[in-house]
Amino acid sequence: MFTVLRNELIAPRLHRILVLAPRIATARQAGQFVMVRASEGEERIPLTIGDADSAQGTITLFVQAIGAGTQKIVSLQPGSSLQDVAGPLGMPTEIETWGRVVCVGGGVGTAVLYPMAKALAAAGNSVTTIIGGRTKSLIILADELAEFCQAVRITTDDGSAGTKGFVTSELKSLIEAPDSRPSTVFAVGPVPMMRAVTELTRSYAIPTVVSLNPIMIDGTGMCGGCRVQIGGEAKFACVDGPEFDGHLVDFEGLAKRLRMYEKHEEACRLSGN
Amino acid sequence: MPTTLSSKQRLSIQRIQMPTQDAQPRSRNFKEVNLGLSQAAAIAEAQRCLLCRGRNCVAGCPVGVSIPEFIGALAEGDIPAAADILQQDNALPAVCGRVCPQETQCEAKCLRGIKGEPVAIGYLERFVADWSLTHSADLTSPVLRPASGKRVAVVGCGPSGLTLAGELVGKGHEITIFEALHDTGGVLRYGIPEFRLPKEIIDVEVERLVARGVKIECNVIIGKTLTLAELQQEFDAVYLGNGAGLPVLLDIPGENLSGVYAANEYLTRVNLMGAGQRADCATPIIQGKRVAVIGGGNTAMDCVRIARRLGADSAMIVYRREEDQMPARVEEIHHAQEEGVEFVMLAAPLEVVGDENDWVAALRCQKMVLGEADESGRRRPVALAGETFLLETDVVINALGTRANPLLTATAPELKLNQWGNILANEDGSTTLPGVFAGGDIVRGGATVILAMGDGKRAAASIDAYLQGLPSRLQKTG
Questions:
Q1: Which of A2, A222, B126, B265 qualifies as a FRET site for A239, CA 20 to 30 Å off?
Q2: How far apart are CA A122 and CA A101, in angstroms?
Q3: Which of A222, A233, A239, A261 to mutate to probe the B interface, most B CBs <10 Å?
C-alpha cells in the first residue's frame, strides 16, 4: 500500500497527489511513469511521475479524473492509500545540454512535460516553455514552470489567458527569431497537438521529442498493447518509450488505436462508473 | 481397502475418464472444465499402477515427483500419506495436476501405456493435491532445516520462482520474491484462464508458501524499482525467473487496426484484470462475434476458448500446418473442439483487412500445403501459389509467442544473454554471475509451466549447495 500524503486540485479535474513510495522516489528519473491502481478491481493506469523527493521518499503524480480508475485515485484523501504503485517504468528522458530548448505542453500533457523541463533546466539548458489549453482554467503549472524556465508563454484557444491561438504559432515565432531558435523541442499533449508541433519543427529540421500515452495494460513489457509505429517499426511505449523522435511517430496510427475503447468509456461515463 | 491386488487384477481396470462440465454450457462460462475425480474413482485408477521397478514415470517428470510412491499410497486408500509424498516433491501439485502435459511426460513413460492406456497420473496428482488443499490439518508438516541465516531473492512470482521458493524455504533459507505485477502467480494468473486453472488454486498454493515463511513483494520491477546489483548486495543469492516478455508480432499489414490483440494483452485483460468475466470490471475487452486466433499452441487454445466464453459465435484457430502438428496439448485441442471452436488449418495470415473505421473486418490468408520435413521432423508448410482467401472476422488475436523480457537484463550488462536476449544458464541454473541463477522462460524462451518448475527445483538444489559453500551436484553443461 502506498500512502497518499497530499491531494490538491490544481485545475478543473486535475489533481496533484503526493505519494509515499520510497523505492520509486530513489530510482526514478525524469520522463518515467508508474502503473497505479487505486484499489482492487480497478484498471492499471499509467501516470507520469511529476516529481520526486528521494530524501522524503515521495513522488508527485498529476492525475486528471477522466475515467472510473482516475476518479477513484483523485478521490483518495491524505492518510488513505493507493493499493498499487509500480515503477519507475519506461526509459528516462535523454537529458543533454543542447543550449536552448523549447518545451511545449498541451492541456494535461503539461504535467508530463514538467519533469522533463525541470531536468533539462537542471542540466544547464535554457528552457522556454509554451503552455497551451482551450481556456484559462486548463492552463496548469505555469508558476511552477516559471521557477526554472527562462520564459513561460501561454496560449489559449479562446484568448482567456496569454495569447489567443495555438501553441504552434508561439513556437513558430520563437523558431523564426534568431536569438530564440531552439536546438531541440520537447512536446507533450494531445495527439493532434504533438503532430502539429512535429510538422512545424520538421520543416525547420529541429529535433523534436514527444512523449506518447498509448493504451497500456501491464506497463512492464509484457502485453504489447502499447505498440506504436516509429519510423515504420513497431516499438513498445512501456519499454522503448514513452519518449520518441517525434518526426518518426505514426500519429495517425496512434490516434486510431487510442479510440479503440471509446464506446466502453462512453458507457462507463453514462453509467457513472 | 484392498491391500494387495494381483497384476492381473490391476490390468483389468480400465483407465478413468475425467468428468467434465458439458461442452455446451461450459463454452459460455468460466467455471473449471475438468471436475476432478471422486475418491473411489481415484483409488481405482491408482490401483491400475503396476508399481513397476523401472519407475520410468519419475524420469519423465521435470520435477521428479515420486509418482509410484504417492500412487501406491493412494491405491491403499492412504490419502494423507500420498499427500505427504506429493508435497515433498512438488511445490505446486494442484497446478501441475491441471496444466502439465502429462501425456508427453510421466504418462508417456508409463509401462501400462505400451499395451494400453497409461495410468492417469495427472488426474491422480490433482486428486491428491485438491484433497490436501482442504485437509491441511491432516498433513505432516515437512521437516524444516534450522534457519541458515542466508537470504535469497527471487525475481518473478511465477511457477519457477514459486517452486524454487518452496524448495529453499524448507532448507532454512530466508526467501523474498519480487513480483512486477500487482498479484502473485505470474503466467499462472495472467496467462492461464480460470476454466483451466481456477485463481483460487493459485491463491491457496501461494498462501501455503507464505505460511511457510516465503515473503512476497508485489509491484517491484527488478531492473527498474531495484537493480540486480542491489539485490546481489542485499541477498546471498538471486534467482531470476522473470518469465517471458513482449509478444512476437505478426509483422503483416493491418496489425495495428482496432480489434487486433497480442495474446498476452487479451489474456491479461481477461485473466488478470477480469475483463469480460465480471459485469462491473473496469478493464474493457472487445468481445468479438467472429474471432480468429493465429497459432496452434496452448496459448492459442486458451485465447480461442476465452473468445467463445465472451460470446463469439465463431471462434477460429488459424494455423499454417495441420491439426496433428499443433503444439497444444491434445486435451486442450479436444476441449476446444467440443466447445465449438473451428479449426482453419494450412492457412498463413497475410494481412488484417480493416473496415472504413479502421476496425478489423477480415483476415486474408495464404493457403498452405505440407512439404518436406524440416529439422524438427515436422513437415514444413509451403505456400500454394496464388491461393489466398478472406476470413471474415472482427477480432484477431496473435498467439505466435513471446520474446525475452528486456527490463532486467537491460540493466545488468554483466549477465550473458543468447542472441534472442534470453539469459544463458547452465543445467544447474547458474549464470555468468556468481550467486545469480536463472530458469524458466527468461532462459528457455516460451516453454511450459512444468519445465519452468523443473528449472526452479534444480536451481534450488544448486543455490542450497552454493550457500553452504559446496560444489554444485549437477554437471555444468553450458
A1: A2
A2: 13
A3: A222
CA of residue B333 relative to chain centroid, distance = 16
Of A85, A225, A261, the CB nearest to B265: A225
Cell output for B346: 494450412
| CA B451/CA B401 separation, integer angstroms | 16
Q: Which of B224, B247, B258 sits opposite A89 (nearest CB)?
A: B224
C-alpha–C-alpha distance, residues B440 and B431, integer Å: 13
- The pTM for the full model equals 0.93
Query: Is position A116 within any domain?
Result: yes
B226 and A CB contact within 8 Å: yes
Looking at the fold, whether A119 and A201 belong to one and the same domain comes out as: yes
Nearest chain B alpha carbon to A23 = B225
- Min Cα separation B75/chain A (Å): 44
* DSSP code, position A43: P
Q: Beta A126-133 vs A208-211: how paired, if at all?
A: unpaired
Residues of chain A under the 70 pLDDT cut: 264-273
Q: Is residue A166 part of a domain?
A: yes
Q: If DSSP codes are grouped into helix, strand and coil, which group holds residue A273?
A: coil
Helix H or strand E encompassing B386: strand B379-392
Record: contact B221-A89, CB cut-off 8 A: yes
**d(C-alpha B317, C-alpha B301), whole Å:** 8
Is A229 domain-assigned?
yes
| A108 shares its domain with A242 | yes
What is the ipTM for the molecules in this complex?
0.92
Residues of chain A positioned with their CB less than 8 A from the CB of B180: 86, 218, 220
pLDDT confidence of B280, banded at 50, 70, 90? confident
**What's the pLDDT score for residue B473?**
58
Give the separation between CA A243 and CA A264, rounded to whole angstroms.
27
Domains of chain B (ranges; CATH) run 7-138 (1.10.1060.10), 151-245+404-468 (3.50.50.60), 249-401 (3.50.50.60)
Position B1 scores a pLDDT of 47
C-alpha A113/C-alpha A101 separation (Å) is 13
Of residues A85, A87, A67, A143, the one with CA closest to residue A110: A143
Chain B residues with CB under 8 Å of A31 CB are: none
Q: Which of A88, A222, A227 sits opposite B405 (nearest CB)?
A: A222
- Residues in contact with A261: Cβ distance below 8 Å, sequence separation at least 6, in sequence order: A215, B284
- Helix segments in B310-404, DSSP class H: 330-338
Report, as an integer, the average pLDDT of B423-441.
Answer: 95
Domain co-membership, A179 together with A58 = no
Domain ranges, residue A169? 100-258
Pick left, alpha or beta for residue B444 (phi over 0 → left; psi -120 to 50 → alpha; otherwise beta).
alpha
User: Residues 231..260 of B with a Cβ closer than 8 Å to A: which?
Assistant: 244-247, 249, 251, 255-259
**CATH code, A118:** 3.40.50.80
> Do the Cβ atoms of B235 and B336 come closer than 8 Å?
no
Task: Please name the member of A218, A253, A259 whose beta carbon is closest to the beta carbon of B181.
Answer: A218
Q: What is the mean pLDDT of chain B?
A: 93
Q: What is the number of CB-based contacts under 8 A between chain A and chain B?
A: 113
pLDDT of residue B477: 42
Please report which helix (H) or strand (E) contains residue B183, including its range.
Answer: none
- In A12-54, DSSP assigns E strands to 14-20, 33-37, 45-53
Q: B447: pLDDT confidence band, cut at 50, 70 and 90?
A: confident
| One domain, residues A118 and A176 | yes
Burial class (CB in 10 A: 0-12, 13-18, 19+), B315: buried
Which residue of chain A is at minimal alpha-carbon distance from B243? A222
